[in-house]
Write a structure and sequence with these properties.
Chain A: This is Carbohydrate ABC transporter membrane protein 1 (CUT1 family). Chain A: It is found in: Cell membrane. Chain A: It is a multi-pass membrane protein. The complex is a heterodimer of chains A (340) and B (293). Chain A has 340 residues and is mainly α. Chain A has a domain of 165 residues: Orthogonal Bundle (MetI-like fold). Chain A contains 15 helices and four strands. Chain B has 293 residues and is an all-alpha fold. Chain B is globular. Classes of the chains: A mainly alpha (340), B mainly alpha (293). The interface between A and B is large, with 107 and 105 residues.
């Protein structure tokens, strides 16, 4: 393809991506170095019948003028990154000195908003990704063995948890595990504790969020593995059987190696998606027990005062996290291309 | 499939079947339960006394006289004006799908046909953009959008969603176009067509299966989005998903959680229908593309 026709063909997409993905990234990075202007305070002498007092009040006009003139705020350098709400170097150092032993240090880290969010995000990613792959694999093997007529409906129902909007899907689960819902009641009956409430316990909330994560993502893994199973070479399976391989050995040495490239693919997609876990935390109203990096940004942006700079700094840190997570894949894709 | 190697002993067969039944229950039961419960009153849906009330609607009978009530739907659609949100969602989805497919087919076609190195870099950058959580980008939009008075309108959200969808759309369409033989458009060009004419007369007629599959995923991304729509739309322009989220804040205190439940069921219904009709395309899209929405 000629350079010029390539250029015209990709122009619309390129413009869109530059304006709404590349430019916002630049904008986020620059915003994270500025902090909002403080309000302009003026001293006013207030004289009444009982003498004069000095009063301080906010000069709304001057504040608005200054904010109008420099919408980014005043330059703060790396201050926002190091403050208590982000990397919190000071607090971490203090916690390191004051804590006795690593567990104690971990506990004080989890009291800092950024580390709390990072801790949950990483735990969630590390636990949900392998469980999704396992569950998806078993469902694929099970679906593969049912009668052909049943396959359509089975796949239909299996797809639902993934297709349904994350916010909606997690709300549905949340209502069911409510202390007055069917699963909540079931849990209370199982544990014989009438006061058990998922909403009130940090541990249970984490487990619930991860259960939701696996439930939501397993269909994707299932579909990919199921498609992979259709292409397993029956000749190889049969010759393995002739050679005396047991059923387990056939799965272990023929099926699993065949699916292995798919596992890397699913793992990559899941890592990216789980790292941005966000909607279930909103639905479960779990912010007291678990926050993620995405939720921290959302929290800063919402509400009365939009903390743009704080959100920007968290965004930059999240992007760095994703870059680290993705770098092995990018390097591999690049090498693959070079080999071609 | 009738090969001896794939035949299973009965014990394994029973194990696999029972595992599958459990999985299907886990996957489908929450939806059926919520659908059923949305026609009850709150006292039944969240039953303190007995969970079976939600099944038989004891309180619903006492309060309304029938076993089913549409009060939740009426409250959500009429009183809370959920129809407006549904309309907004329709507008957003239609425009997002059309615009992103238009840009995506052009770009995807060029990327599939170009053999130059920069096409590969283009795709690599798209992959990196695909990994960006939308909410990190949103924090970059807010300030400029406020400054330029773009915030709150539907068309801003449409453009933003199209842009966020673009990397995924490009990857997917790129892999679909790769499967269309090169000779097709090249022979048209030998016959004197320009590149665009070849695309217009030869490629467009044969590209629809791939485009439909990609369109489904674009639709899902626009329909399911929460991060962008909740931050960039003003209250009267809200789409369904942020509207449901706002029900949680305001109406739960008033005891109208059933509004949210019926809104949730209403928002899920179109997705059910979509999966029913396009199951094959969704499955092929999930496996064919190197990316997922």
């Amino acid at each position: 393809m000629k350079h010029s026709s390539f250029f015209w063909f990709v122009l619309p997409s390129t413009l869109l991506m530059l304006a709404f993905i590349a430019f916002p990234i630049v904008s986020v990075v620059s915003q994270s170095f500025y902090s909002a202007h403080e309000q302009v305070v003026v001293q006013v002498k207030n004289c009444g019948p009982f003498g004069c007092t000095m009063e301080t009040s906010v000069d709304q006009e001057a504040t608005a003028a200054i904010r109008e003139a420099e919408p980014l705020g005043k330059f703060a350098g790396l201050d926002i990154y190091t403050d208590r709400n982000h990397l919190a170097f000071g607090e971490v150092a203090a916690a390191w000195v004051n804590s006795d032993g690593l567990p104690d240090f971990g506990r004080s880290l989890m009291n800092l908003p950024f580390y709390k969010a990072l801790g949950f995000t990483l735990t969630y990613t590390a636990i949900v990704t392998p469980l999704t792959i396992l569950l998806g694999f078993f469902v694929a093997i099970a679906v593969n063995s049912v009668a052909k007529a049943l396959k359509g409906p089975t796949i239909f129902f299996s797809l639902l948890p993934m297709i349904v909007t994350p916010l909606v899907g997690s709300l549905i689960l949340f209502w069911m595990v409510d202390a007055r819902g069917i699963l909540g009641t079931g849990l209370q009956w199982l544990t014989d504790d009438p006061n058990l409430s998922v909403k009130a316990s940090t541990g249970l909330m984490w487990i619930m969020l991860m259960v939701y994560g696996v439930w939501h993502a397993a269909p994707f893994a299932f579909v990919v593995f199921y498609a992979g199973l259709q292409t397993v070479n029956t000749d190889t399976l049969e010759s393995a059987m002739v050679d005396g391989a047991t059923r387990w050995e056939r799965i272990r040495f023929v099926v699993v190696p065949h699916l292995l490239p798919l596992v890397t693919f699913v793992a990559l997609i899941q890592l990216m998606d789980n790292f941005r876990v966000f909607e279930p935390i909103v639905s479960f109203q779990a912010s007291a027990h678990a926050t993620s990096l995405s939720y921290a940004i959302y929290n800063d942006l919402g509400g009365e005062t939009r903390l743009l700079s704080s959100a920007a700094a968290t965004s930059v840190l999240t992007i760095i996290g994703i870059a680290i997570l993705l770098s092995p894949v990018l390097v591999r894709t690049w090498r693959d291309f070079d080999r071609k | 499939m009738s090969s001896k190697a794939t035949r299973q002993p009965p014990t394994i067969r029973i194990m696999a079947t029972s595992f599958l039944v459990i999985w299907l229950l886990v996957a489908a039961f929450p939806f059926l339960w919520t659908l059923w419960g949305s026609f009850k009153v709150e006292g039944d849906f969240f039953s303190k006394a007995n969970w079976a009330n939600a099944l038989f609607g004891t309180l619903t009978q006492a309060e309304t006289g029938g076993s089913f009530t549409g009060a939740g739907y009426e409250g959500a659609w009429v009183q809370e004006e959920f129809w407006r949100a549904a309309l907004n969602t329709t507008i957003v989805c239609v425009f997002v799908v059309t615009v992103s497919l238009t840009c995506g087919t052009l770009g995807g076609y060029a990327l599939a046909r170009s053999t130059h190195r920069y096409a590969f870099w283009f795709l690599l950058f798209a992959l990196m953009f695909r990994a960006m959580p939308p909410i990190t980008l949103v924090s970059g939009y807010l300030l400029p959008f406020f400054e330029w008075n773009l915030w709150g309108h539907l068309y801003t959200t449409v453009i933003v969603l199209v842009a966020i969808n673009q990397p995924f759309t490009l990857w997917m369409l790129h892999s679909f176009f790769k499967n269309i033989p090169k000779d097709l458009d090249e022979s048209a060009m030998v016959d004197g067509c320009t590149r665009f004419q070849a695309f217009r007369h030869v490629i467009i007629p044969v590209m629809w299966p791939g485009v439909i599959t990609t369109g489904l995923f674009s639709f899902l991304l626009a329909y399911n989005d929460f991060a962008v729509t909740t931050m960039l739309l003003s209250k009267e322009n809200q789409t369904m998903i942020p509207k449901i989220a706002s029900f949680l804040g305001t109406t739960q205190t008033k005891g109208n959680v059933m509004f949210a439940v019926s809104a949730v069921v209403s928002a899920t219904a179109p997705l059910f229908v979509m999966v029913m009709f396009f199951q094959r395309q969704i499955v092929s899209g999930l496996t064919a593309g190197a990316v997922k929405g």
